[in-house]
Amino acid sequence: MNPDWSLLAPEYILAGWAAMVISVDLFFGRVRKDYLAYLAALGALVAALVSLIYINDDKPFGALLQIDNYATFFRVFFCLIAFFTCLISARFVQERVIHAGEYYALILVTTIGGIYMAAAEELLTAYIGLELLSFSLYVLTSFLKFDLRSNEGGLKYMLLGAFSSAILLYGISLIYGVTGTTNFSEIAQALSGNNDDLRFPMLLGLVLIISGLGFKVAAVPFHMWTPDAYEGAPLPITAFISAISKSAGFALFLKLFAEGFMPVIDEWRWIVAGLAATTMVFGNLVAIQQRNIKRLLAYSSIGQVGFLMMGIAAISPDAASAMLLHLAGYVISNLAVFVAIIICYNQTGKENIDDFAGLAERAPFVAMCLGASLLSLAGMPLFAGFVTKFILFQAAANQDMLWLAGVAVLMSFVSLYYYLVVIKEMYLGQPEAPTRFPIVPLEYAALAVLTAGVFFVGLYPQPFFDATANATDLLFAGTSAASVSSGPPAP
Amino acid sequence: MIPLQHFLVLSGVLFSLGIYGVLARRHAVLILMSVELMLQAVNINMIAFAVYFDPEAFVGLIFAIFIITIAAAEVGLALAIVLRIFRNRATANVDEVNIMKW
Q1: Which of A272, A313, A437, A481 sits 20 to 30 Å CA-CA off A41?
Q2: Which residues contact A351 (CB under 8 A, 6 or more apart)?
Q3: In this complex, is the C-beta atom of B94 within 8 Å of any C-beta atom belonging to chain A?
Q4: Which one of B59, B82, B89 has the shortest CB-CB distance to A182?
Q5: Taking Cα atoms as reference points, which of A255, A374, A364, A360 lies closest to residue A311?
Q6: B77 close to A (CB below 8 A)
Q7: Nearest to A148 among B42, B53, B99 (CB)
Q8: How many domains does chain B have?
Q9: CB contacts < 8 Å between A and B, how many?
Q10: Measured between alpha carbons, how far is A426 from A343 in angstroms, rounded to an integer?
Q11: pLDDT means over runs of 10, chain A (491 residues)
Q12: pLDDT in tens, A270-288
């Protein structure tokens, strides 16, 4: 077995680029000041373009990774997330962070971890990818050495992350014991036979794996680290965590459960559905009382995790592609929100919701983009959030999960309230100083592109829909289509 | 040959002790040690399963090696963060590290 190394070109580019960024930072101090962010962003962009070569490929790398449309989708997706994170970090890092080289290199390395999680065909590879992603994020979260909140957020994230990966591993070891393999499709084969005497360890393993992955994607009741890590981390890193850690977690979650655990779907479907319901109710209700914008977004992202988990509970080809679509829409809107907040933070250094009072007068364009992307997160028509939520809720309802879709619709209305509070502050509040913000071309350009993306997904979702449908096509090829299309049996 | 159950009971006990330690201890370093205990429980499981069920492919043994390596990296990283907290706050008790509350 001789693996085809050329399949991993985007990862090599990212890793090499990370090493280059560190050495440029070491040897050319002048570049560090101004251009390092753009150098790192260029690396992510190159990796995204190179990944496009593998569209419609379906090749295994050993038995470890599978480079198919699913992997390609997430490669491009993660690389673009890293691209925007590097771009919007530029001013923040210059003013507030020492060791810029490590900062950008770790962002690129995190991206590799995420890609491996999405491409993994096998539990060990998935686990290593997950730890690569998490370790880099622990460091990035506590990157502001002398900021007590950053220290604290990093410590909590780190301790709970280590705890959760130990739980995940114990679940993996039990599944390995039951099936004798760590390969997703072989697990499915082993589980599809009659195995009543092994039901207990299998169930325990499933529950432990669900809780371990639940920690990574921040599902209630495993969400405790989220608000603190979000608040403590440097602002661009908060944006990065909310985008990449969630989507990589869900990429692995979806692939593992669609390919590996499909034969025992009746055992875990109701666990995931219950988690989804608690997550969206809890996240959205607690978000209402938040005063800090980062914590508000942390809880709102927990609410969004609930919607996404609904896609896994209602697992089917439709629901899976709807879930990826909602994931993409959520990440684009969320990044746009964070870019707007970072622009304000760079100017004012404040991050409470009251501090956004009168933003519409001081920076009309930023306020407009922030308002549009917040409405998109709430799921208003015309914006990305509406289309993606609509398709996702419909897919869930088609799989006999009507009650869950009902809860989700209700919680979307609740979420509208706290997003509108921010918009009200921006447009009706009195600014503390009447001065306008200076226009920073690159940040404004990034904001404009992301907001355009929000409208694009909202008005013309067809290209995105095709992409996600292509990506999830092969996930269900191996499992028996009958158990999927006939709908779930009664609980 | 020792029956498999002995290994599973041992690893179950270790894992539960680790969870208890994480929940009951308040010092960051002791919490880390408890997490290590949980990881060792996983290793025992992995190796036992590999030897009993999967003697040709030994995926479990490879898995155990990777877990040991990653656990070492994890401790290095965690101690660096704990050290940072200790320098800034002169405490490593997780109850006293509580600026942020919901």
Answers
A1: A437
A2: A235, A292, A293, A294, A341, A345
A3: yes
A4: B59
A5: A255
A6: yes
A7: B99
A8: 1
A9: 115
A10: 14
A11: 85 96 86 81 96 90 91 96 94 88 95 96 95 96 91 93 95 93 92 82 94 92 92 95 95 94 91 95 93 93 94 91 94 96 90 89 93 94 92 92 93 94 92 84 94 93 91 74 39 34
A12: 999 999 999 999 999 999 9
Query: From start to end of A38-157, where are the E strands?
Result: 59-61, 65-67
Spatial neighbors of A277 by CB under 8 A, at least 6 apart, are A306, A404, A407
The parent domain of residue B81 ranges over 4-89
User: From the CB of residue A477, how many other CB atoms can be counted at a distance below 10 Å?
Assistant: 12
Nearest to A158 among B48, B54, B78 (CB): B78
Check CB contact under 8 Å for A170 and B38.
Answer: yes
Q: For residues B10, B12, B18 and B22, what is the CA-based torsion angle, rounded to 10 degrees? A: -170
CATH of the domain at B56: 1.10.287.3510
A181 contacts B54? CB cut-off 8 A: yes
Give the CA distances from residue A360 to residues A365, A428, B87, in Å, rounded to whole numbers and listed in that order: 8, 8, 42
Which of A170, A172, A178, A352 should be substituted to probe chain B, the one whose Cβ sees the most B Cβ atoms within 10 Å?
A170
pLDDT 10s digits, A420-440 = 999 999 999 888 877 888 888
Judging contacts by C-beta atoms under 8 Å, the chain B residues touching residue A138 are 77, 81
Buried b (16+ CB within 10 A) or exposed e, A259-295: bbbbbbbeebbebbbebbbbbbbbbbebbeebebbbb
Closest residue in chain B to residue A150, using alpha carbons only: B85
Whether B97 maps to a domain, the answer reads no
Chain A residues lying within 8 Å of B88, measured CB to CB: 146, 148, 151
- Token pair 């169930």: residue: A203
The residues that bridge with A352 in the sheet, in sequence order, are A292
Mutation site, A169, A178, A230, A294, interface B, largest B CB count within 10 A: A169
Q: Is residue B99 part of a domain?
A: no
DSSP three-state, residue A382: coil
pTM over 0.90: yes
Structural domain includes residue B95? no
Q: Which residues of B touch A127 (CB under 8 A)?
A: 66
